[in-house]
UniProtKB/TrEMBL annotation:
Pfam families: ABC_tran
Record bears the keyword Transport: yes
Protein's recorded name: ABC transporter ATP-binding protein
GO cellular component: membrane protein complex; plasma membrane
Source domain of life: Bacteria
Family: Belongs to the ABC transporter superfamily. Macrolide exporter (TC 3.A.1.122) family.
Keyword Transport: yes
Length: 235
């Protein structure tokens, strides 16, 4: 199947090939992947271990590059960019939420959220104001000065979400965002992602093993052995 409906999607993969060197051999992951995601879509990607989910997410994040084929996000051809250009692109156009939060333990919640803004030409006052606004948005007003170890898993993940969106990126990537959380905290995080999608119009791509998480998405794409085999859409 080819999950590409609109002719001009915000995220467009065409004929993407990707392999890894395994000694003298090649481990083929994708041999011609097609994908189109509209601006403002919330897409979940599910699939068994080894199906290529992380490989796809790393390419969408500009961490890794296809061997062949095109990968465009907005006006940017990531497949044609070198590493330095992709690093610069990441700082301005993409936010990522990790399974294990990836917060710096020696920084407070506010300082963790502030990190991506240090790359922007903003005054300290404007930076702090933006951080406080985003922490408020994710329900963490009053927790600014707490360290990650003083926060619950769900609260740490909300700091992770705040950090991912503080630069107002066009694309929000989530790598198993509920994988380390109990059901209650997971549901809170999913509600937050749903809010960002519905109210702020964020384009979200979320890799997940959690069927409850996938229910929050408009589209769920099922990946198997490097191919999309099925798509389900929210009613
Ligand atoms: N750096 C690497 N070197 C060699 N092979 C790799 C590398 N990264 C991934 N692979 C292989 O590529 C295939 C796809 O891996 P990938 O991590 O994308 O799958 P996944 O669907 O994310 O799996 P999981 O759900 O277990 O995280 C697997 O067979 C994996 O062993």
């Amino acid at each position: 199947m080819t999950p590409t409906s609109n002719p001009d999607p915000f995220v467009a993969l065409d004929g993407v090939q990707k392999s890894y060197a395994l000694g003298a051999k090649k481990m083929l992951v994708f041999t011609g992947l097609q994908l189109g995601i509209q601006r403002g879509d919330f897409v979940a990607i599910m699939g068994p271990s080894g199906s290529g989910k992380s490989t796809l997410l790393n390419m969408l994040a500009g961490i890794d590059r296809p061997d062949a084929g095109t990968l465009r996000i907005g006006a940017h051809r990531l497949d044609q960019m070198g590493e330095a250009a992709r690093t610069a692109w990441r700082a301005h156009h993409m936010g990522i939420v990790f399974q294990f939060y990836n917060l710096l333990p020696t920084l407070t919640a506010a300082e963790n959220v502030e990190l991506p803004l240090l790359l922007k030409p903003l005054s300290t006052k404007d930076r702090r104001a933006r951080v406080n606004k985003i922490l408020d948005l994710v329900g963490l007003a009053g927790r600014e000065k707490q360290y990650p170890a003083q926060l619950s898993g769900g609260q740490q993940q909300r700091v992770g979400i705040a950090r991912a969106i503080v630069s107002d990126p066009g694309l929000l990537l989530c790598d198993e965002p509920t994988g380390d959380l109990d059901r209650h905290s997971a549901d809170e995080v999913l509600q937050m992602l749903g809010f960002l999608h519905r109210e702020l119009g964020k384009t979200i791509v979320m890799v997940t093993h959690d069927p409850q998480a996938a229910l929050c998405a408009q589209r769920t794409l099922h990946l198997d052995k490097g191919q999309f085999i099925e798509e389900t859409r929210a009613a």
